[in-house]
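Attaching the record inline, Q. Sequence:
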Amino acid sequence: MPEYRVALVATEGIFQGLAKQNMLFHSCIAELIDNAIAAQRPDTKFRIDAIFVPGAADATTFDLYLADNCKGMDLKILSKALQLGESATTESRLNEHGFGLKNALATLSGGNGPWKIWSKMANGTTVVSVEGPFRPEMIIRDDDTFPQDDFLPQDISTLVKVSPKVTFLQTVQGRGAPTEDFVRLRDWLIEHLGVLYRGYLEQNSETLDTSGETLDTSGVIVVSINTIRRQVPPVQVPLGDKKIEYIEVTVGGKLWTLEYHYGTLDEVKRDKLIRGSKAKYYYQGNQATQGIDIRLGKRTIAARQFETIWKSEDGKQQLNRHNNFNDFVGELLIPELPRGMLSTINNKTDFNLDDPDWMQIFTRLNDFRPQRNIREKTELELRKKWIAMLKATNPEDVIVDDRSIWPTGTRIDIYRRTPENKIIIYELKVGTGTPIHLYQLKMYWDGLVITTKEQPKEAILLVEDFNNDLEEMANMMNQCPPPDNTKPYNFKIERHRDKNL
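Structure, as predicted:
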């Protein structure tokens, strides 16, 4: 039987197909940022600038520049980076598959459209460049120069330019009608990048600043509209009543310790998460955003994971999302494993479920199942613990959690009366204290005075944390006239940790 050899060629159709994998704008940007961080110089913090230049072509597109100050590329490295399925370097797990650069540029350009890359080695002077669309044969120049636009940073090793559609940029949004306001779209992108790269942007225990005293970051990411720049902050999971479990697993023949952080959504932290503003995409207290993030090394590789991990109690099917889990959030921290371990899918938007090591980790996580109505259960546990502590140290006091007031039968969290008839009332909450929590205490106080003719001595709000504004609010409330000209209000705020809770 005759045999025929067929040479497989990466045609333009392959790259057009790459652009049809439902990647979102922020996932494409992340692929380019991954490449930059993978090439970070060992003696220099990375700086990555993503720059929007609206209206440079027409109203439906904009110019996007992504610049970094990392190692850069020469002719050999750039040639390798252009090869489909080939990584420019093999040192970093951020260069895992060899599809990221090609996937991102083909998608950002609207289906293998125009783009351009300039690069030079960090200590070199020769600027190499290449222009898209991707073709079976690409031409690289080694005598180019970087653009000199005012909005570009001075210290550039690699610069990428592409012109996406505004409609594609809108894929950074969550709920709501699509907006064409670049400022608002930038805010969405900053939130995504803050979640994906919080491990790099937060203070790093392995890195000290020049004084050797203060923890430093691995680098900086900035998103700009022309010359109006805004730095990306590390966006942490807004956890209240955080619990930590240490999980040991064997991966690649070596024992590794994973940290699993979980707890209750802290809405106060969430509402100030992005440089003092509310998170709009993640941690929304709904079915879509319940679950945990998974961080591998410093890179968050998956967010809002739930049904992929946990199974039903009988173990026969995946656990479905439900409104009863809306307050459940967490984060799995996996150490920086060698390249090739715990693999992800080609565009790094999810983990590779064909990897048995992921299944091993998920099996261990099933030992710590999400709690339904975790906020209510956690606050109930806090009340029971505080009552037990109070009774142990004050056995003569009357301490109950079923004291009702007002015609509605509203229950005080904890009611305490000493043998001297001094009454102390408590409100216990998970997470950060809010104004409504103080007003709940006021409702309890007024209810005792008006409906039962009892006079509290003090009312204490026990929360995980509180800010100066809330403390000032309590002080101002203490100056308000009490009902029926009774004794003055006496509201206090205390932290769980100060009571060993």
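Residues 379 and 429 are 6 Å apart (CA to CA). The chain has a mean pLDDT of 89.

More tomorrow.
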